[in-house]
Amino acid sequence: MEALLEHFITQSVAYSLIAVMLVAFLESLALVGLILPGTVMMAGLGALIGSGQVNFYYAWGAGIVGCLLGDWISFWLGQRFKGPLHRWSFMKKNKALLDKTEHALHQHSMFTILVGRFVGPTRPLVPMVAGMLDLPLAKFLPPNIIGCLFWPPLYFLPGILAGAVIDIPADMKSASFKWLLLAVALLLWLAVWLCWRWYRSGKRGTDRLTRYLPRARLNWLAPLMLVAGAGSFVALLQHPLMPVYWDILWKVLSH
Fold first, then answer.
1. Quick one: which H or E segment has residue 13?
2. What residues contact 91, with CB distance under 8 A and at least 6 apart?
3. How buried is 105 (Cβ within 10 angstroms: 0-12 exposed, 13-18 middle, 19+ buried)?
4. Are 54 and 61 in contact (CB under 8 A)?
5. Were both Cys, which of 35, 67, 92, 173 would link to 148 (CB 3.0–4.6 Å)?
6. How far apart (Å, rounded) are the C-alpha atoms in residues 55 and 49?
7. Helices and strands counted in the chain (H then E)
8. pLDDT above 70 covers what percent of the chain?
């Protein structure tokens, strides 16, 4: 299926951009984004950008259009069907998330709309809830537009980085560099995730991971991983193939 999708979207620029816009739209659409693996799909499209098969700026524009359409339709649905939505069984099952979103919008509407665009569970929910609360357009549109401008490249980025690695010539003995790049990327991701849990540990309730990652352990583990990640990244910058990798990335992002 993935091979068929890749074959389809690489046949023409138009198909590629339609695919980007559709994924961004569905990922942003009320409730649909909760069940769609949009993050993985955006990273996959980013890999095509990184390998030079899709133009970065065209894809960015298509992603912005998809985001805006998804968010604006979600906002309208929230305004138009707020009564039935409150009574819908699906919403009752996710009442805790709905209540948190409503509270955040009441307290800090513009900040919540902007940050909610980049948080998976709230991305397809915030615009709809904003509509259900009859939030004025003057408060909804500015942070929404800003979020939609920056969301596509951020979610393309992992795929772009991976796609650019693929284009490093094999005759340059790049296999070890590719594995090293992957290891550093995973280490940095783990460090950021642990720091986020550390920051949120005093504000969130317990979950399954709290047993293994209590605040006392995060107090030393998160900073340690952050230092390790930063150190490995600095060491990676000294690798002989880094100039080649930067050159490929520059070509992708400048054309």
1. helix 13-28
2. 85, 98
3. buried
4. no
5. 67
6. 6
7. 14, 0
8. 88
Highest mean pLDDT among 14-23, 101-110, 187-196: 187-196
- Find where tokens 């890999």 sit: 47
Which residue carries 């950021």 as its tokens? 192
Instruction: Please give the structure tokens belonging to residue 118.
Output: 């980049």
- CA gap 33, 27 in Å, rounded: 4
Q: Would you tell me the crossing angle of helices 137-166 and 242-254 to the nearest 10 degrees?
A: 130
Give the tens place of pLDDT for each residue, 189-230: 999 989 988 887 766 556 677 777 888 888 999 999 999 999
Under 8 Å between Cβ of 112 and 101: yes
Q: At residue 20, what is the residue type?
A: V
* Other CB atoms within 10 A of residue 132 CB: 24
Residue type, 117: R
53-83 residues labelled b (16+ CB within 10 A) or e (exposed): ebbbeebbebbbbbbbbbbbbbbebbeeeee
Kindly state the tokens that stand for 53.
């098969």
For 45-89, what is each residue's pLDDT tens digit? 888 888 888 889 999 999 999 999 999 999 999 888 877 776 776
pTM for the predicted model, two decimal places: 0.81
